[in-house]
Write a structure and sequence with these properties.
Blueprint: H1 17-26, H2 32-37, H3 41-53, H4 61-71, H5 75-86, H6 94-105, H7 109-118, H8 123-135, H9 139-147, H10 153-165, H11 169-182, H12 188-199, H13 203-214, H14 221-234, H15 237-250, H16 259-269, H17 275-278, H18 287-299, H19 303-310, H20 318-335, H21 341-352
């Protein structure tokens, strides 16, 4: 340092205070649009909250706030924002459709239907009402909205989703593959295809298709969870749990989105460990939670609790038919009653058909 010939600060230093100030001036503060373009919804929401708190909110701030909250999976917060917007005289008609989408994801189907009917006719409205008709089990109404679907990607994806929900997995696969032929960059469709193959018990095929997506997005909670489920079917619970452990350790941003699903699956992978703590709150959130809780009660020889949990369930899948039949048979045997046994024959007979 004693032999320095170039000044640290001043002319000729190349690192002057003024140049540092100039570089700071050149830096631009990020805009909400920048975060949205990068799909950084957490960053967008943080900036929107900052603008609100500092009085820099614009007219469209509330709309963007609801939009980003929805894409973060915080449907309750998004619903509250859209609901507040509907009370304004200058409310845009599309807000009702957006509010209806929030209601749908919150399981508030009646409210979602009412809100959707208040919005303008659109492709999104038709798709939403299509799904609501499925939730209401209204076949006539479902077919009406089905006929209004067009040969566009969004409508076809909606149709594939309904096929999946109705256990028509091969029909769903056919739609997804047809779309993928013309849109190879729609990588998420590989997850949907893999999920269908999983439901068809083709676990090896599911793994192969899923790998295409995981090569690009290895921290996806949905994809890693499906991979873990395949491992559970192909190997054992320990191997499956190992996959989820990696996801938990990386603290992926998508982990919180699928947190309930992962907690549910860990109970299954651990042969029912922690079932009474985890499964009851998820009974009306994750469809499989009710079935797995019934299985847990059966293993504990608590047939009455298993029956109370499944007695009002209308079976739609082979697993539900079999499980309801088994529970009715077990209850009849325990109580020495023949009145319940015919239900076992009915449900097993319906499954065989």
């Amino acid at each position: 340092m004693l032999s320095r010939t170039k000044p640290a600060v001043g002319p000729g230093s190349g690192n002057t205070v003024s140049s540092a100030k100039d570089s700071k001036k050149k830096r631009k503060l990020p805009k909400v649009e920048d975060f949205l373009q990068m799909r950084d919804y957490t960053g967008a929401l943080t900036l929107l909250e900052f603008n609100r708190n500092t009085g820099k909110a614009k007219e469209e701030t509330n709309l963007w706030f609801a939009y980003t909250a929805f894409h973060l999976g915080d449907y309750k917060k998004s619903m509250e924002e859209y609901l507040a917007l509907t009370k304004s005289e200058a409310c845009h008609p599309d807000v009702w459709i957006n509010l209806a989408c929030c209601y749908f994801f919150l399981g508030m189907y009646k409210e979602g239907d009412e809100a959707a009917q208040k919005g303008p006719k659109s492709r999104l409205q038709n798709r939403l009402l299509f799904h609501l008709s499925h939730k209401f089990n209204d076949e006539k109404r479902l077919m009406g909205y089905h006929q209004a679907l067009q040969d566009i990607i969004e409508d076809q994806l909606s149709l594939a989703a309904i096929h999946y929900l109705r256990s028509h997995y091969q029909e769903a696969i056919d739609i997804y593959k047809r779309i993928l032929l013309d849109n190879r960059d729609y990588l998420a469709l590989n997850v949907y295809v893999a999920l269908c193959y999983y439901k068809l018990d083709y676990y090896d095929v599911s793994q192969e298709v899923l790998a295409v997506y995981l090569q690009h997005y290895p921290d996806s909670a949905t994809a890693v969870n499906l991979k873990a489920c395949n491992h559970f079917r192909l190997y054992n619970g320990k191997a499956a749990e190992g996959e989820l452990k990696t996801l938990q350790e990386t603290a992926s941003p998508s982990f919180s989105f699928a947190n309930d699903l992962i907690k549910h699956n860990l109970v299954v992978f651990r042969s029912g460990e922690g079932a009474l703590q985890v499964l009851p709150p998820l009974v009306d959130v994750i469809p499989e939670a009710r079935l797995n809780l019934v299985i847990y009660y059966l293993r504990q020889d608590d047939v009455v609790e298993a029956y109370n949990l499944i007695k009002d369930l209308e079976p739609t899948t082979p697993q539900e038919y079999i499980l309801k039949g088994v529970v009715n048979a077990a209850l009849g045997q325990e109580q020495g009653s023949v009145s319940v046994l015919p239900m076992f024959v009915i449900y097993c007979g319906l499954f065989c058909k």
